[in-house]
Design goal:
Elements lengths: L1 E2 L2 E4 L2 E6 L2 E6 H6 L2 E5 L9 E7 L6 E2 L4 E6 L4 E5 L4 E6 L6 E3 L3 E6 L5 H7 L20 H12 L17 E5 L9 E7 L6 E2 L4 E6 L4 E5 L4 E6 L6 E3 L3 E6 L5 H11 L46 H10 L17 H8 L17 H10 L17 H7 L35 H13 L4 E9 L1 H10 L6 H13 L8 E3 L2 E3 L6 E3 L1 E2 L5 E2 L2 E2 L7 H16 L13 E5 L18 E14 L5 E14 L5 H17 L7
Amino acid sequence: TICGGGRRRANVAVRRKRGVVRMVDESEKLKTRTKEIFMPALSSTMTSGRIVQWMKGEGDPVEAGEVIMVVESDKADMDVESFETGFLADILVQEGEEAPVGSTVALLADTKEDIQAVKDCGLECIVSGSGSRHDGTTAVSPRVAEEAVDSTSSTPASDGAKPGSQQKPDYSEIFMPALSSTMTEGKVVDWLVSEGDKITAGQMVMVVESDKADMEVESFEDGVVAYIASPVGSSGAVGSTVAYLAKTEAEVAKVREYALSLGSPSSGTAPPPSAPVEEITIPTPKASPPAPAPSTGSVINEGRIRASPRARKVAEELGVDLRFVRGTGSEGAIHEEDVRASAAGATSISSTTPAKIFATPDAKKIAKKENIALEKIIGTGNFGRITANDVLKAAGKFQEPSRAPSSPPVAPASAAPRSALPEAAVPMNQMQKAVVKNMNASLGVPVFRVSYSIKTTALDELYGKIKPKGVTVSALLAKAVAITLQQHPIMNAKYENESILYSKSINIGMAVALADGGLITPVLQNANETDIYSLSRSWKDLVKRASEKKLKPDEYSTGNFFISNLGMFGVDSFDAILPPGAGSILAVSSSKPVVGLGKNGMIAVEKEMNVNITCDHRHIYGAQAAEFLRDLAKLIEENVESLLM
């Protein structure tokens, strides 16, 4: 029987590719781990895309978040990023060729040594069980789209027509994108445009909170914002419509009326007409003039330049070198208006045409009440947004959290609560929902735990010496674990599909709790090869950007071994839950003085910390975990100087 282009005989599969028939043994499928890159849906109407350019060649390394190809959709040319790390093993769709949305266009191998095996095994060895596309995109089903059109346009409009049965106007949609390979829904943190605004393809239109970070989202369409279906604070499933665009200003009212008749995408019922909202408007051109490029001609951007496809196209037309253009987007990304301003030799922003101001709804309300001009306030929120506290500071009414004055202790029974508890259920944010999903997934993994007490006298002395140089305890622990893992590769491996996947890189993920709820594990990559001072600097930067939800995918998704440290809270002992896809996680408790026998045989007081390791029992056994902890203790107690090498 023929299935999916292959013919099976006994335990050997036959795969056809470009006219070549290859025999793939089942044992090869077990040891070869292949990941796919799909053709993404770059607009709500896109059903297929043409690959304009591959940014990587076969054999090249690919990092998560790195642009891997440029795709021409039915609207524009767009950069497409990879949500996987690996090596580009096999390009199945060449430049200039077209492929349907959701189809596989290339294959990734885990390591360079696996490239030939992935080529030979191909689609037969695809990693399964994720339940989501590896590129994080959501496909649009043409048939479903056509049925939706038919259902809304089959009945002629009439005075007594039901909502949604009126004639369909010419419009386009902005939908909730997939910002990571695990994202199923997103929350709108901020709209960077308002109803009635004209927008162009490539323009940033909203900020979305995914299960990992807050990210700016650009539009794939030109048009006028007719109706925002998902206001700030609302959540929507990946692929759901969050806004409607009219082709012209004259069609805005018609598109808005039609969108309201369809009802809310999340509830399925039409939202009630909202009361008129007064907004603070500031004269602004179609595109806000960006900061000018330096007159000295100095290079601003080196290496890979973050620029939208539209910006690259305009730069090519105008002969602008992107190395000398200062981007105003997220992390310095260059947009079309940046290129045009650079080409025009802009030197200053006109005082009569100030840039559009992004402020939270609360900030706008307070500014209106206090009669404060928002253009005079510097925002401290994500992406420079003006927050309510920023406005209160400008009004001189912001009160710093005051410390309680020193006074005799008050009995707990009479202590006033810090804040009123909410009376109703509080919805979780996207990251909290992701934690719930991961914790539920961990219940299906058989685990065991091993405890060990480690004397920390030598470690504490070393830390006291190098702390003034910026070294952190977290970096010291990560370094100690990474050095020990070199002797115990099984502890750095993970189980998958009845096989053990060993990793040549020792990447340590360390749990960080976020202030607004949720948990994330920033990763110290190649911790065994990085010096302790660089490791500490990296960790401080990762923690800072984690709290701002600005980590890149490869900075939180590439961990091999994990650490959860609650020592700063004085805990004696605790168990950590194994993250999905991990082999081990080490729980570190506080270091406390204990009485025991010293090296000279006399009674002495030394500091000890308790560590508990949780392991996947499918490929790691108790003796292996015990040996790892024994060697870790030996390093910390007797050879702590090796952490400085």
